[in-house]
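hey so i finally got around to running the thing on that chain from the lab meeting. sorry it took forever, my laptop kept dying and i had to restart like 3 times. anyway pasting the input first so we r on the same page abt which one it is
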Amino acid sequence: MPSKPTILTLPEEELVHPGNRACSGCGLSIAYRIGLKALGKDTIVVVPPSCLTVLQGLYPVAATKMPSLNVTFASTAAAATGVLAALRSLGKQGITVAGWAGDGGTSDIGLQSLSGAAERGEDFIYICYDNEGYMNTGVQRSGTTPRGALTTNTPVFGKTQDKKNVPAIMSAHEIPYVATTCSAYPLDLYTKIEKAKAIRGTKYIHILAPCPPGWGYDPKYTVKVGKLAVETGMYDLYEIENREFRLTGASRKLLEKRKLVPVSEYLKMQDRFRGMKDADIEDVQRRINKRWGAYFEMFKE
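ok and heres what got predicted. didnt touch it at all, straight out
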């Protein structure tokens, strides 16, 4: 297992050019820069239509400095499977294949091919950056949009359904490694992607990637919003390795404190939750308290 990285030991080589097409304060741009460092240059990235295709641009002026295959919305995992087969046919080894898709292309449109690849045990890393909506096409709700969030197709009362728990769905496939992380914690993100590289089989990593225009906050607060998501218990950092669940990083530290930041501090920073009433916020807090109460009991000393 590699030693724990620090800001001083991260690889210096940048695998994505600066000055790309990402929005100001884009959480994905942080995750992509750090994630590519963890994957390394001997990687082929498979990307469906998403904010990432906008960030990258198209050959010959693409921002990414490594081979990148742009595919259809539903076929990220299927295309990654094809890339693996091509590498085997050519006798090429030591190349990482990574699917990198948004929440729409993962939780909704691409879930079928991802489930099939996981069931077959294809040896690649699937990374979902979750900005909780179809941000590239105008902020429509996705399966991972949280309850109460306003979008262009849930414009009055916000989304009325709960967020789809994609990491739990992937864990149910009994793949060897599932992890959640957040762009506000780049070292945690780096560690988990690097760890996934050393594991054979299908690996799934879910990254919360705050989105200033879609979520409705000042771009300078991207890291603060991401950290509040974790500190309030709204989003948990964990690993499921060989079916063993453990909280990690900042979420693990919350076990020691046994105290969460009120979720209202997270919700009220974002314009997308402006339609939520006090009773709605209290309901979110009750749900978080119930889940974390179970964690406190599960991991008590």
